[in-house]
Amino acid sequence: HRVAILISGRGSNMKALVEQARNYEVVLVASNKPLAAGLAWAREQAIPTWTWDSRGVEKAAWESALDQSLEDHRVGTIALAGFMRILSSEFTRRWAGRILNIHPSLLPKYRGLETHKRAIEAGDKISGCSVHLVTEELDSGDVLAQAEVPIHQGDTEASLEARVLEAEHDLYPKALAEFVER
Ligand code: GRF
């Protein structure tokens, strides 16, 4: 099964998806940030990459160029991994049921940004991460898999982020593997 990963930055989830791939193949890593650290890593692994700086570019033009690259690489499933650009409803409809995302909270709690800060401020005892289908509404598609992570006394945003990120690296490859088998 041919998978593309979309990133905007560090790419630690992308790395986990590549390193733990069993029943799928990462055939493309694409980014809206040419300097994303994850892109350099993907190139080192000889994974094909595609990038176009999306700043100041019309979304439809950017997405149709991406689409062309996805088609060229015969991609079946897209995995968003720290991809920070909201996809248009045209794009998400065209790829309906074939785009996954990982989000650092137990959805439906804390859609959007600053999830760890919000969980700590709310006094939550448990946080975690969710793999979900991407629809036109942000962080709102069907949840495919979740992992819980405890919030400890004295946790900071950074310490909680690190604990949740570790769970993400375990959850996402498993959820994607199950997804492509379905
Ligand atoms: C992760 O926390 C992911 O859940 C969120 O963005 C972050 C990306 O980190 N969507 P990385 O680029 O995979 O290291």
TrEMBL record:
Keywords: Purine biosynthesis, Transferase. The record marks D139 as: Raises pKa of active site His. The active site is at H103 (proton donor). One of its GO terms (molecular function) is phosphoribosylglycinamide formyltransferase activity. (6R)-10-formyltetrahydrofolate binds at R55, M84, R85, I86, L87, N101. SUPFAM superfamilies: Formyltransferase. Pathway: Purine metabolism; IMP biosynthesis via de novo pathway; N(2)-formyl-N(1)-(5-phospho-D-ribosyl)glycinamide from N(1)-(5-phospho-D-ribosyl)glycinamide (10-formyl THF route): step 1/1. InterPro entries: Formyl_transf_N, Formyl_transf_N_sf, GART, GART_AS. The keyword Acyltransferase does not apply. It catalyses: N(1)-(5-phospho-beta-D-ribosyl)glycinamide + (6R)-10-formyltetrahydrofolate = N(2)-formyl-N(1)-(5-phospho-beta-D-ribosyl)glycinamide + (6S)-5,6,7,8-tetrahydrofolate + H(+). Its EC number is 2.1.2.2. It is an enzyme of class 2 (transferase). Residues 2-176 form the Formyl transferase N-terminal domain. Belongs to the GART family. Catalyzes the transfer of a formyl group from 10-formyltetrahydrofolate to 5-phospho-ribosyl-glycinamide (GAR), producing 5-phospho-ribosyl-N-formylglycinamide (FGAR) and tetrahydrofolate. HAMAP family: PurN. This is Phosphoribosylglycinamide formyltransferase. It comes from Sphingomonas anseongensis. The lineage of its organism: Bacteria, Pseudomonadati, Pseudomonadota, Alphaproteobacteria, Sphingomonadales. The gene is purN.
